[in-house]
């Protein structure tokens, strides 16, 4: 989230000194954050349509459920412990957590204890909106981030194993990363910039997707049978919902309804447009035909790339970020195909690579003339920011990759990570959920015995 001005700490104040006024809840800021929360929530069904359209028809429900279940599961765990682990600290801004608080939040807000709608949060994250509004806005990020991982392991991972993986990953990977960057943790302390989730959301999910796909293994008929998208209109509907919701994803990360939110929304639209146009041009030149899936992928690459930079760069910087990120993601998708690695829906080539490029380009294009709480990047006389951004990227890669590996290793002790071979053949929908997307593939309703 964007750095915010915060109430001054009252230290060494004598009786003759007038205390700084308490921050007041602003109705305009609160309204914008409530709208932004709804916009980001819409992104998860949007992702479900985007991913659902890319798989084969017999797996569409299972794929969409892998996104939709997050709205229920993380929606509960965030209330019970996730929010506290991510954001509870004992110090106010602009200070940062010391000792253990540099790496993980506390337990004071477990079960939303002392998280009220009557006052802002006591740390100073969002001083003009109710604490519960800030909490529920952050919940939307916690919901969609692990859902992104599902794109790498669709059509083969057991839904039971995925269920438990999400609980563990959101607790032990997402919450600490959110704390490092946005919760007064060590990455925020050294000056790493991540306006709305380049590292916390996209890099973490992207590299975790690679590890998960590698450990679970490829689909049994990967590189043997075609895996063409069964419903491209779903893909276009999905990217439309994602882009619409992304205005809350990035614009809401200003945590207020002022000029910074306007900057974030403008740069988001510009970067997405540049990403889509760049991808179409590349396909037209290199493959002779622009595709619908291609332009959707380009829009998504532009959105991912601008996410860490949205509140720190000028419009031209956003245009360049969208275009550069789209080029990198385009070639990453092609390289993944050449490697014959079954990251089914190209989660890492788009989200992992896009988040990485976006985070690095933030260190180049960021300027304090856009956001005084940010920093100047390489082009504005401060090469040290680029080094800090690279450090943040590397730290996120290592933590998310190792953590995902350990979580899946532990889960493998207690359950199978993937379904039986016969279930892959017949389809995940009828076997994992007892229903079908279109009611025509297996009209008998029979499923493979899992015992």
The stretches of 5 or more residues where confidence is low (pLDDT under 50) are: 5-20
Q: In angstroms, what separates the terminal alpha carbons?
A: 47 Å
Query: Roughly what percent helix?
Result: 55-70%
Structural class: mainly alpha
H-E order:
HHHHHHHHHHHHHH
- How would a crystallographer describe the biggest sheet? none
Compute the number of helices.
14
Rg to the nearest angstrom?
22 Å
How many strand elements? 0
Mean pLDDT: 93
Shape: globular
Percent of residues in β-strands:
under 5%
Task: Record the SSE blueprint.
Blueprint: H1 27-54, H2 60-87, H3 131-153, H4 159-182, H5 186-189, H6 198-216, H7 232-251, H8 259-287, H9 292-306, H10 315-339, H11 347-365, H12 383-414, H13 421-426, H14 428-433
Keywords: Ammonia transport, Membrane, Transmembrane, Transmembrane helix, Transport
Protein name: Ammonium transporter
Transmembrane segments: 31-51, 63-81, 134-154, 161-183, 195-216, 228-249, 255-280, 292-310, 316-335, 347-366, 386-411
Structure at a glance:
The protein is mostly helical and 451 residues long.
Account of the protein in words:
Residues 31-438 form the Ammonium transporter AmtB-like domain. The chain has 451 residues and is mainly α. It is 62% helix and 0% strand. The chain contains 14 helices and no strands. The longest helix is centred in the last third of the chain and has 32 residues, at 383-414. The chain is globular, with a radius of gyration of 22 Å. The N and C termini lie far apart (47 Å).
């Amino acid at each position: 989230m964007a750095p915010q001005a915060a109430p001054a700490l009252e230290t060494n104040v004598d009786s003759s000194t007038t205390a700084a006024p308490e921050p007041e809840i602003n109705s305009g800021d609160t309204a914008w954050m409530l709208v932004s929360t709804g916009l980001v929530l819409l992104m998860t069904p949007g992702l479900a349509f985007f991913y659902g359209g890319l798989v084969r028809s017999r797996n569409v429900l299972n794929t969409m459920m892998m996104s939709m279940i997050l709205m229920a599961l993380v929606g509960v765990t965030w209330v019970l412990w996730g929010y506290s682990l991510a954001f509870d600290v004992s110090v106010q801004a602009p200070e940062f957590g010391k000792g253990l608080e540099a790496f993980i939040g506390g337990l004071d807000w477990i079960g939303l204890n002392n998280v009220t709608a009557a006052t802002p949060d006591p740390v100073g994250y969002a001083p003009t909106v109710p604490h519960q509004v800030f909490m529920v806005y952050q919940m939307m990020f916690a919901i969609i981030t692990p859902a992104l991982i599902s794109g790498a392991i669709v059509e083969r991972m057991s839904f039971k194993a995925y269920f438990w993986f999400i609980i563990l990953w959101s607790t032990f990977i997402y919450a600490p990363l959110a704390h490092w960057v946005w919760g007064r943790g060590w990455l925020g302390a050294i000056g790493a910039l991540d306006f709305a989730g380049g590292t916390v959301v996209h890099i973490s999910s992207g590299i975790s997707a690679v590890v998960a796909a590698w450990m679970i293994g490829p689909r049994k008929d990967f590189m043997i049978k075609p895996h063409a998208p069964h419903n491209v209109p779903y893909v276009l509907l999905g990217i439309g919902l994602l882009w619409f919701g992304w205005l809350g994803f990035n614009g809401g990360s200003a945590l207020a309804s002022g000029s910074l939110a306007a900057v974030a929304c403008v740069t988001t639209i510009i970067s997405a447009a540049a990403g889509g146009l760049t991808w179409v041009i590349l396909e037209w030149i290199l493959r002779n035909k622009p595709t619908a899936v291609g332009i959707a992928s380009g829009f998504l690459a532009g959105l991912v790339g601008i996410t860490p930079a949205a509140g720190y760069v000028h419009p031209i910087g956003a245009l360049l970020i969208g275009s550069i990120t789209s080029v990198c993601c385009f070639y990453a998708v092609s390289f993944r195909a050449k490697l014959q690695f079954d990251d089914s829906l190209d989660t890492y080539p788009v989200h992992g690579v896009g988040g990485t490029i976006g985070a690095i380009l933030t260190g180049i294009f960021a300027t304090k003339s856009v956001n005084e709480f940010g920093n100047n990047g390489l082009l504005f006389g401060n090469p040290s920011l680029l080094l800090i951004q690279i450090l943040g990227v590397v730290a996120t890669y290592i933590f998310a990759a190792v953590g995902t590996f350990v979580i899946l290793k532990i889960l493998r002790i207690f359950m199978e990570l993937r379904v039986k071979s016969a279930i892959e053949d017949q389809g995940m929908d009828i076997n994992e959920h007892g229903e079908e997307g279109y009611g025509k593939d297996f009209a008998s309703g029979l499923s493979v015995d899992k015992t």
